[in-house]
């Protein structure tokens, strides 16, 4: 197999990453994040009608009540409504209006009526941040023990890179960020770390095996040796993710989208971020 010069292209790949990260940060700063009611507080209502229905009729009802809402089909004759916080009287009024102006409810028509209080939303935001922070700290400690502190710092930079790009895409597309998105981010941290460990493990082995070789050349050889495994693992992971993205219900699509972006970016960063950074920090070193 041809030896690809990954390390020599590090300036180009760093520039590409900086541009994408900058676009993501600008979008987050200007467009903001579309936080779900899990974090902002609100009501989530799921109803099943006895017959088919028109989503526009439901939107018209919500507008008449002065309520902003996201409305989506959640199954056969089922609707999922996410709106601002509704008290019991408002929920009852909405339910009765839907029955009257859209379609009668099925026998088990009230599937769910969930309220997310603003104080709980704040607590969820804080817990989500803590979960990601603790995951990063644990990764830093683990890689420092298994490999080297330089490897750990490079891995954390790659994880931050992956997370910013993934969140940035959600900001650009204004996709909802909810608890499933946080679960996807934590999953991505583990996946990206796995890719990084595969490459780093080969680098560690070659540090012992290869002699009288410049450190950068050894790293490039290590990437090429593990490239096939990295690509095959990523493609295998992407197959079920793509199926979820196109065929899963609406509630899982954000999760699948985050995984799809993260797997691609995580594979990229393990090759074009972690390895070049390790090389830069060992510039000029010759293995003996």
From TrEMBL:
Q: How does it sit in the membrane?
A: Multi-pass membrane protein
**Can you say where in the cell this protein is located?**
Cell membrane
Membrane-spanning residues where?
12-30, 128-145, 152-173, 231-249, 255-281
| Superkingdom assignment | Bacteria
**InterPro entries reported for this sequence:** SecD/SecF_arch_bac, SecD/SecF_bac, SecD/SecF_CS, SecD_SecF_C, SecD_SecF_C_bact, SecF_bac
Similarity annotation: In the N-terminal section; belongs to the SecD/SecF family. SecD subfamily. In the C-terminal section; belongs to the SecD/SecF family. SecF subfamily.
What name does UniProt use for this protein?
Answer: Protein-export membrane protein SecF
Specify the species.
Muiribacterium halophilum
